[in-house]
Amino acid sequence: MVYAPRDRVRTLARSAFPRRRARLVMVRDAAACAAAFRTMLVDAAVVDVGAATDETWRVAGLAREFPSAPFFGVTPLRAGDGPALARCAGLDFAELLVEGVDDGVVRDLVTRRAFSARFAAVLGEPPTALGLTTELQRLTWKHVVASAGRAVRTESIALGVGVSREHLSRTFAAGTAPNLKRVIDLVRLMAAAELAKNPGYDVRDVARVLGFASSSHLGSTAQRVVGTKPASLARLRTADLVERFVHGRGRSRG
After folding, report:
1. Which CATH number fits domain 2-113: 3.40.50.1000, 3.40.50.2300, 3.60.10.10, 3.30.200.20?
2. How large a percentage of the chain has pLDDT more than 90?
């Protein structure tokens, strides 16, 4: 997501994030920025602070409301930009991008800190307690966590790992390993737990941005898979969710 009143920064953003590589959302003000956060999973936010106004700082202030998404400032880094840089630092911006210097690496600088990238990196290896030890199980796990909690279909995972849907479902859950559908739900709840820690989100927001049909759907999934109410997700760590999951909740029908 990009807030860029200046043409120069809008052009930079479109060049760094072409349609074939990313979904780029331009917002006009803080209200639109907040609305975007509550309707889609925002991986990162880029804010043009090169000609900062009161509206700029209203947008920038959302970094405190949605800390799961890193905020990046863009500036030409002029001599008088010191106060703006200090303000960005005070809002815990992830990094400042310098116009004309970082143009060629903007995409790399932003995407490596994006929510989806960090989520997949932290969960790159399946927790030992899940018992996912075969090559197919581990490769499947990587495909699941790459979705960062968004809805993902078994068919698309099977295509990604190069087997049929039936073979994947049957082989993944061989022995005492958990059912693939339950593992997908567990990963979605891991993402929900992270997003729920953001002050700017309530349960309905989390359900919406992760593609659950409703907050009730999120609630029933949380109860079925980890035995807790969605309101409790914010206080649970990934390790807590895994521990709850392995206690008899790793299997589902189908």
Report:
1. 3.40.50.2300
2. 89
